[in-house]
């Protein structure tokens, strides 16, 4: 996509945003986030454009987690989040699939989240299980 900042970075055509490449493979690129939540916050992106995870061919996702794992080890992060958002409502800012590796060194730095648990209705949960299982 011509206007996608991550596609421009992949093609090496972005003077709009600096890119500190950490890892590059045939199918993926990892670089430091320019608006980090903590030291070592990095992004791993597939080299094919797709806004949501379901838009990316599986073969372009094969080295994403191994790269994220290498980043964890290289940064020395003992606690960290691997995060991937899909759509504006899910907090996706750049409409190109990307995975965050966010070190969590303390309570002030890194990803801060709430986890609004919903009350469970076991009958509804079983029906949902059956619905999803049938589609897999």
Secondary-structure blueprint of this entry?
Blueprint (H helix, E strand, L loop, with lengths): L4 H7 L9 E4 L3 E5 L9 E5 L17 H12 L4 E4 L15 E5 L18 H14 L1
Antiparallel strand pairs: 1-2, 2-3, 3-5, 4-5
Concise structural overview:
With 136 residues, this protein is α+β, with helices and mostly antiparallel strands.
Protein described:
- The chain is α+β, with helices and mostly antiparallel strands and 136 residues long.
- It has a single domain, classed as HIT family, subunit A, CATH 3.30.428.10.
- It is built from 3 helices and 5 strands.
- Strands 1-2-3-5-4 form a 5-stranded antiparallel beta sheet, covered by helices on one side.
- Strand 1 (21-24) and strand 2 (28-32) form a beta hairpin.
- A motif (Histidine triad motif) lies at residues 96-100.
- This is Adenosine 5'-monophosphoramidase HNT1.
- Residues 5-111 form the HIT domain.
- How much of the sequence is in beta strands? 15-25%
Helix run count: 3
Largest sheet data: 5 strands, antiparallel
Q: Per the principal axes of the C-alpha atoms, what is the gross shape? A: globular
Helical amount: 10-25%
> Roughly how many Å is the radius of gyration?
17 Å
**Side-by-side strand order of the widest sheet:** 1-2-3-5-4
Average per-residue pLDDT, rounded, comes to 94
Low-confidence region ranges: none
The CATH superfamily label reads HIT-like
Terminus-to-terminus distance:
31 Å
According to CATH, the fold-level topology is: HIT family, subunit A
From the coordinates shown, what is the CATH architecture?
A: 2-Layer Sandwich
The arrangement of helices and strands along the chain is: HEEEHEEH
Give the helix/strand class.
alpha+beta
Secondary structure tally: strands: 5
**Whole-number tally of structural domains:** 1
Instruction: Using the coordinates above, name the CATH class.
Output: Alpha Beta
Organism: Chaetomium thermophilum (strain DSM 1495 / CBS 144.50 / IMI 039719)
Cofactor: Mg(2+)
Domain HIT: 5-111
GO molecular function, one term: hydrolase activity
